[in-house]
Each structure stands twice: as C-alpha cells, then as structure tokens.
Amino acid sequence: MPSKEAPVIWWLRRDLRVNDNAALAAALSTGQAVIPLFILDPVLLRSEASARVNFLFAALRSLDEELRQRGSRLLVLRGEPAETLSAFTHQVGAAMVFAEEDYSPYARRRDTAAAKRVPLTLTLGLTVHHPAAVVKADGKPYTVFTPFSKAWKALPASGKPWQAPTRLPEVKSDLFVQPLPEGAAHPDFPASEREAQRRLNEFLAGPAAAYQEDRNRLDLEGTSSLSPYLRFGLISSRAAVSAVRGKISQADPADRGGLETWLNELIWREFYQSILYHFPGVLREAFQPGMRAIRWRSAAADLAAWQAGQTGYPVVDAAMRQLTGMNWMHNRARMIAASFLVKDLLIDWREGERWFMRHLIDGDPAANNGGWQWTAGVGTDAAPYFRIFNPITQSVKFDPHGAYIRRWLPELRRVPPEFIHQPWLMDLETQRQAGFVLGRDYPYPLVDHAESKTRALQVYRLRGGA
Ligand SMILES: Cc1cc2nc3c(=O)[nH]c(=O)nc-3n(C[C@H](O)[C@H](O)[C@H](O)COP(=O)(O)OP(=O)(O)OC[C@H]3O[C@@H](n4cnc5c(N)ncnc54)[C@H](O)[C@@H]3O)c2cc1C
Q1: What proportions of the chain, in percent to the nearest 5, are helix, strand and coil?
Q2: 224 lines ligand 1 (CB under 6 A)
Q3: Domain covering 289-461 in this structure, CATH number
Q4: Is 262 helix (H, G, I), strand (E, B) or coil?
C-alpha cells in the first residue's frame, strides 16, 4: 500500500491545460499532492517540425505560469518516456500516475510500456467521446463520416467543462529537474490557454455566424484558427463542443447553420482520431486496399517545385508559401495544394503528408493523414478519385479578388485581376506594364491541368495493373 503522503504524478503530453483536464481532476481526487510532469521525448524532439516543437515549448512555459499562479509548478525531464517516468515515480515515491489517453500508434506503444512499469491511469480528453464508444451496433468502427457523426451526436452530452481550482498542491522544491525548454514564440500563435479561450470566444461571437459561407474563402479570416490549440490540448475538445452547443441552443433556427457546420468540423476531428485508433495502418498505406497499387510518379524536381511554391499555379503556390511562411494553411488551401500534388503531379500522397507534418504547427497524425487520404481518394469516406480539383476554378471561386494570392506571392502583386489566377495568359505587353516577366519572376505552369487530369484518371483506373 502506498503511504498516505505518497504524491501522485500528473503526466502531461498533448493536454497542456489546467482547465477541463480529466487527468488533473483525477489526480486531485486522490487527495494526495500532485506533481505535474512533462517528459521531453528525444524521439519526438528529433523531428524536423521546429514550429511545432517551439509551440510545444512555449505552451509548457505558459502552463508553468498557470500552475505557479495556483501554487504549483511544472517539472520537466528529458529521456525515454517509460524509463524516465518509472525512475521518477520511484524517486518521489509516487503512488499513481494519471495521463490523458492519446490514440496514435506511437503514443499507445509508449503508454503500454509505461503501464508495465508504473501504475498508470489513462483518462478521456483528447476527444469528447472515446473512439471505442462511437461504434456500430455490432461493435465495428464507422468508416464513413455521416453515420459516425450521427452516432456521435446521439451519445449523451459530455457534461460541462471542468474548471481548475484556484489553488493546487505545492510541489516540493528540492526535486531535481531540467529547466523549462526555450524556443522562439510564434508571432501568429501565442501558446497559452488564455489565447485558446480568447480565440474560441471571439470566433463564436463573430465569424461563426457566417462560417458556412466564409469558411471556404481563402481571402477571409472565416475560421477559428484554433487547430494548434486543439492539437496540443491548450483547450479541450469538450470545451469547444460545449461552447458551440451552448450557442446553438440560444440561436434562432435561421442562424444555426454556421454553428452546426463548425460543430461538424470538430466531429471530423474526432472521426479521424477514431480512424487512426481503429486502423493504425493508415499511417503506412491507403485505407482502401484497392488503392494501394497506384503507380505514383517518382519526380523529385516536381516535388521540390510544389514544396517551394513554384508550380506556376498561383493558388497552389500561395498555399504552399503560407505553409512555410506561417506554419499553417487554410483548409481549402490544404485541399487544393494536396490535390495538385496527388492528381496533377501524380506524386504519392505520403510525400505531401510528410511535408505538411514537417511544417504545420497544428500537424496531427490523425487529421493530416485523414486529409491526405481523403484528397487522394484512397481513404475512408474519400472523395471519389475521379473528382479532380481544378486549381483555376478553385482559385476564382475561393479567392475571387486574388487577395490571398497577392498576400503570399509578392511577385504577382502587380498582376492585373483578370490574370491573377492564370498569369501565363498575359501577353508580353501586359507583362511589361505589370513590371513582371513570366519565366523569370514567376514560373510557367509545371503541367497543363487538362492533360494531367486525363493522366490521373488513367493511372487511377489502371491501379493494380488492370
Ligand atoms: C491535406 C490536409 C491536411 C490536414 N492536416 C491537418 C493537421 O495536421 N492538423 C489539423 O488539425 N487539421 C488538419 N487538416 C484539417 C483542417 O485543414 C484544419 O484543421 C483547419 O484548417 C484548421 O483551421 P481552423 O482551426 O481555423 O479550423 P476551423 O474551421 O475553425 O475548425 C475547427 C477545428 O475543427 C478541426 N477540424 C476542422 N476541419 C477538420 C478536418 N477536415 N479534419 C480534422 N479536423 C478538422 C480542427 O481541430 C479545427 O481547429 C488537414 C486538412 C487537409 C485537407
């Protein structure tokens, strides 16, 4: 039996918040002292995704401040998680460890290893409903979004978000730990729980009403930009869902469309978490077995042009420059850029998935994989492969004045509006007037969309050598 004074450990991973944190609530409910611990995992820190690592570090510093205001503090250790946790648990004589369950294959292996060495209790929080709770009557997982969302919505509401107490147990000062990690703060994404809450409130009070129409517009700020905060748990999914449901219940029926659509996006997030939980193999291969034999092109120069935002299709290039410029990309832009890589360049979607994971501040294995497989037409509930985005019509429709293009492609700022979506149509005189030379200041299109569409359809049809 652990002694009465034995502390318990609150092991944080991607739930970097004090409010609505079920692992913290469970740790506190033991009545013992609670030690908040984060373990810097060298495997994850080796990643090239410096924007995400820096966001994580900033979130840890902010969390430490939140804890200090409540009389506690964050301890940070570095090392292989199960081993480090086990050594620390013994060092402090902790009786139990509480952590929020994470569903990625890596996280599940890590937690299985940890549970063999310490008494680990996992709590629900990464999603509102556990993936094992949103299943068909026969217990099988859903692989199509609409029935998943219906089943998700039919489950009993998840209750009100839990508020952290104003005082937390003190942490003994003689514990040896690492200093909090330093890293550059991101100018567009201040990493704090308060900022997450502010974004949620601001979005629900304003853009949410027109979300149904505006969410696809590349030139508007019509979405919540909460993704990195949900990714690292600076706000719980339950808090976001509960807030939007509260708004829906107060809104006139005619005004509910935007709010309902936003709730659906939060459910898409849960859907992809559920897919990864039930089908971890999606990180390696297409969900649809019939789509695993597509003969992708090996085209290093085309891939490099796509990565650099130099394909000659302005909307694709603006999207790719937004990715490297601010480590975030608009959802419509993600679909357009992804579709271009897969369908127009016929390059394996996993190349794009990797590139996005490297640069996205909200890079999440479940959502990113889901988005890529969907766009490639090879995943669950995927767009049919023969529906191929036209980058020009997408651009005209969702960036009608070219404001998004001009923001991310300074070389096209002086291009007249009638050519902004297709600068290759400019004659020499128009180029001269715009102070711009095609082929020098901006590339000719890498492919002809009509031809590449025909090629993609052929290759998709021939998959498996049929
Ligand atoms: C190819 C591709 C890759 C993607 N990679 C990621 C990723 O790595 N991480 C990520 O969080 N999202 C990813 N998405 C989904 C979506 O693009 C982003 O969640 C969204 O653009 C984030 O902006 P927002 O916070 O303003 O979203 P909002 O429109 O305000 O939506 C609210 C929240 O719902 C969730 N969400 C919205 N759309 C989706 C979706 N289609 N799938 C899953 N969750 C969704 C996000 O958590 C988002 O923050 C990807 C989409 C595609 C097509």
Answers
A1: 55, 5, 40
A2: yes
A3: 1.10.579.10
A4: helix
Interstrand relation of 120-123 and 96-100 (parallel, antiparallel or unpaired) = parallel
pLDDT-derived band at 3 (thresholds 50, 70, 90) equals low
Radius of gyration of the chain (CA): 24
Inter-residue contact 371 to 380 (CB < 8 Å):
no
Using an 8 Å Cβ cutoff, are 435 and 414 in contact?
Answer: yes
Compute the half-sphere exposure of residue 353: CA atoms within 13 Å on the CB side of its CA.
21
**Is this structure's pTM higher than 0.90?**
yes
Q: Which CATH class is domain 193-278?
A: mainly alpha
Region at 402 (left for phi over 0; alpha for psi -120 to 50; beta for the rest): left
**Pocket lining: 372 vs ligand 1, CB cutoff 6 Å:** yes
Q: Whose CA is nearest to atom 5 of ligand 1?
A: 368
CATH 3.40.50.2000 fits 8-126, yes or no: no
**Which burial class, exposed, middle or buried, applies to 390 when counting CB atoms under 10 A from its CB (0-12, 13-18, 19+)?**
middle
For 47-80, write each residue's pLDDT tens digit. 888 999 999 999 999 999 999 999 999 999 999 9
Ligand 1 centroid–CA 265 distance in Å is: 8
Q: How far apart are CA 319 and CA 339, in angstroms?
A: 12
Residue 38 contacts by C-beta under 8 Å, 6 or more apart in sequence? 11, 12, 13, 60, 74, 75, 76, 77
pLDDT score of 167: 97
Query: 367 near 272, Cβ under 8 Å?
Result: yes
The H-assigned helical ranges of 206-348 are 211-214, 227-231, 237-250, 257-278, 300-308, 314-326, 331-339
